[in-house]
Amino acid sequence: MNFRSFKKQSFRNQLIILIGFLIVLLIIIYLLFQHNIFHYEDDYVELKDPVKVDPLKADYDIFQLDDSEENLHIKYGFELFINTAQYIGPENGDPEMKYSGNNLSCTNCHLNAGTKPYSGMLIGVINRFPQFRGRENKIGSIEERINGCMERSMNGRVLPVSGNEMKAFVAYMNWLNRFAPEDGKIKGVGYANVKIPNRRVNLEEGKTLFAEKCASCHGENGQGVALREYKGYLYPPLWGDDSYNNGAGMTRVITAAEFIKANMPYGATFEEPELTDEESYDLAGYINSHARPLKPNPERDFPDLTKKPVSTPYPPYADNFPIQQHQMGPFQEIMEFYKAEYGMVKTK
Questions:
Q1: CA–CA separation, 142 vs 177, rounded Å?
Q2: Where are the transmembrane segments (predicted)?
Q3: Whole-angstrom Cα distance, residue 263 to residue 132?
Q4: What one-character DSSP code corresponds to residue 14?
Q5: Exposure pattern of 167-185 as b/e (b: 16+ CB <10 Å)?
Q6: Rounded Cα gap, residues 118 and 270, in angstroms
Q7: The pTM is what?
Q8: Domain 203-342 has CATH 1.10.760.10
Q9: Residue 153 and residue 252: Cα distance in Å, rounded?
């Protein structure tokens, strides 16, 4: 055999070995897929299944959305939420768009754009509406609830239900809702539970705590810190003409104490609070002891007065306790009256 014949035979042998190797490899791959070793399809379905995503750990970065028509509504809702005064506040530049009567933003109360647990968190809220509310004594829509905030916390007027702003708010809330369970009930809904002391608010203690824990952000006189380039506040005013009116839920000492406990001072959380229950209670009372705007026609709230929270700071009531006790406590005596007289267990 000459060199040329040997080289040709060697090439054939190598080719046969290569083809045999490829055949064996293909057989192995086929068997692996037949026995579902890789699970590619199942993994993909799990990642896309919203039930498998923890709504408290989901990504709510609005800036990842593209500019589709639907996403533009969501983005506008987010903008309204964090820069409320700029778009619909009293100094926005368009008289027809003056819906808010103060320069607060929604995120001043619903922290982290509505995603912080125990701060009136809005994740899942869409699934909890329609909802019965004692203040109106009827089943209400999410749009009605938003307008309740507009008239009270924002000290303004209602948004048109079919208007762009209302649609944008609802679109943003729907987007926050995408990983929520069907009933909308998630850990962190509402506010923290606080054991309310069986005594009147200690205003002097509240004043001292405010100076130590709150004044560095909200100002010595509760005036807040305004933004420099835009309308609105970095830290909101807690009383005075540009704050929430007396019809807002935060004017109830018990509600305010629950909010304060899990969120204040800045940086506090439900898991790592910085204030005790009693300190939160006295701070809430001190903040709400100051003057603020008055909501028109407060007597129309709670048509069934027995459903009125005991710490609602304005009459009428379905009891004979003085208004000062409804404003500053002690509240246990009032709660006991409702249980004995009406069979109602009240916590607020």
A1: 13
A2: 15-33
A3: 27
A4: H
A5: bbbbbbbbbbbebbeeebe
A6: 7
A7: 0.84
A8: yes
A9: 12
Q: What would the two tokens of residue 279 be?
A: 């300190």
Domain 60-176 has CATH 1.10.760.10: yes
Place of tokens 């007396």: 246
Six-digit token string for 191: 């506010």
Mean pLDDT value across the chain:
91
The domain spans of the chain are: 3-38, 60-176, 203-342
Given pLDDT bands bounded at 50, 70 and 90, which one contains residue 3? very low
* DSSP sequence for 93-154: S-GGG---SSS--GGGTSHHHHTSTTSS--TTGGGG-SEEETTTTEEE-HHHHHHHHHHTTS
Map tokens 């899942």 to a residue: 124
Is residue 287 classed as helix, strand or coil in its secondary structure? helix
Counting beta carbons within 10 angstroms of the beta carbon of residue 224, is it exposed (0 to 12), middle (13 to 18) or buried (19 or more)? buried
- For 68-96, the DSSP string reads -HHHHHHHHHHHHHHSHHHHHSTTSS-GG
pLDDT for res 50 = 47
**How many other CB atoms are there within 10 angstroms of residue 60's CB atom?**
16
Amino acid letter for position 241: D
- Note whether 60-176 and 203-342 share their fold: yes
